[in-house]
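Example 9 (inverse folding). The structure is encoded as follows.
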């Protein structure tokens, strides 16, 4: 029998707990002195640019006007749509009521048809009895 090798178990290292991080330190800022620069003369926009800007302003005003008109039209369409939805709903409710009424009337009609059939049979029976009674009375008179 071969000898078994002994295995040596090593102790596990303890797990270190995560420490809360310290807030980062702010870097010190140094003041820089502003350099004095020569002021550049402000150029006025040339006439061509002013015309271009005024055209753009007018175009933006037109677009804003059209957008407001479209918003109003949208509100109108939504209002009419709500009315139509309400009308459709009420029409559907009325349809359901009328279908129920038709169902009830159909069942009443069926019961009346059955009654009429029974009454016709009874009438036939009564007619045959009357004819039999008449025959008997005629026979009695003849005797």
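The amino acid assigned to each position is listed next.
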């Amino acid at each position: 029998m071969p000898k078994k090798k002994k295995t040596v178990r090593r102790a596990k290292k303890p797990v270190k707990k995560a420490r809360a991080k310290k807030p980062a330190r702010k870097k010190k800022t140094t003041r820089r002195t502003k350099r004095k620069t020569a002021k550049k003369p402000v150029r006025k926009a040339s006439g061509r640019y002013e015309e271009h800007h005024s055209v753009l302003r007018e175009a933006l005003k037109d677009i804003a006007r059209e957008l407001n008109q479209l918003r109003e039209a949208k509100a109108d369409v939504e209002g009419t749509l709500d009315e139509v939805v309400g009308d459709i709903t009420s029409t559907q409710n009325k349809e359901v009521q009328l279908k129920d009424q038709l169902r009830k009337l159909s069942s009443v009609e069926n019961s009346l048809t059955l009654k009429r059939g029974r009454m016709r049979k009874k009438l036939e029976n009564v007619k045959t009895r009357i004819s039999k009674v008449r025959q008997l009375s005629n026979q009695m008179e003849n005797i």
